[in-house]
């Protein structure tokens, strides 16, 4: 299934590999993505489950962030680590997780 290309950031131009934000069942993830034929596809892997032993089942290569509130906290932590002041937050009374996009400085 293709990933939304609007969230794709290419990190390796030679192999057209990068990262994208993915949301599935209300859970936000940062997915490893490869661009092929103009579409972005999530990369899959077979995780190691023991010494020299790998899972029979392939899983998507991703970092699960959580819900919108947890994603906001992660953005703040990353921004703080780089000395960036991020003035984004949930509006009071807004529990839907909708952000004020104009407050994001990048």
Q: What does the secondary structure layout of this molecule look like, with pairings?
A:
Layout: E1 2-3, E2 9-12, E3 17-24, E4 27-36, E5 39-42, E6 44-45, E7 48-50, E8 53-54, E9 59-60, E10 62-66, H1 68-81
Antiparallel strand pairs: 1-5, 2-3, 3-4, 4-5, 4-10, 6-9, 7-8
H and E order: EEEEEEEEEEH
Q: Using only CA atoms, what is the Rg?
A: 16 Å
- Uncertain parts: 91-95, 99-106
Quote the average pLDDT. Answer: 84
Kindly state the percentage of residues in helix.
Answer: 10-25%
Shape: globular
Largest sheet entry = 6 strands, antiparallel
Q: What is the count of β-strands?
A: 10
Report how far the terminal alpha carbons are from each other: 28 Å
> How much strand content do the residues show?
35-45%
Count of domain modules: 2
Figure out the total of helices: 1
Helix-strand makeup class: mainly beta
Q: Characteristics of this structure?
A:
106 residues, 2 domains, six-stranded antiparallel beta sheet, mainly beta, 1 helix
Q: What does this 3D model show about the protein?
A:
- The protein has 106 residues and is mainly beta.
- It has two domains: 1-66, no CATH class; 67-106, no CATH class.
- It is built from one helix and ten strands.
- The strands form three sheets. Strands 1, 2, 3, 4, 5 and 10 form a six-stranded antiparallel β-sheet that branches. A two-stranded antiparallel ribbon has the order 6-9.
- A hairpin with a 4-residue loop joins β2 and β3 (17-24).
- The chain is globular, with a radius of gyration of 16 Å.
- The two termini are 28 Å apart.
């Amino acid at each position: 299934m293709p990933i939304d290309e609007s969230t794709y950031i290419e990190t390796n131009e030679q192999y057209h590999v990068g990262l994208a934000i993915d949301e599935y069942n209300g859970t936000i993830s940062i997915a490893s993505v490869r661009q092929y034929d103009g579409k972005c596809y999530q990369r899959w892997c077979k995780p190691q489950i023991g010494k020299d032993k790998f899972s029979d089942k392939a899983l998507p290569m991703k970092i699960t962030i959580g819900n919108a509130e947890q994603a906001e906290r992660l953005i703040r932590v990353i921004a703080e680590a780089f000395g960036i002041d991020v003035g984004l937050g949930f509006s009071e009374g807004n529990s839907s997780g909708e952000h004020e996009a104009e407050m994001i400085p990048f």
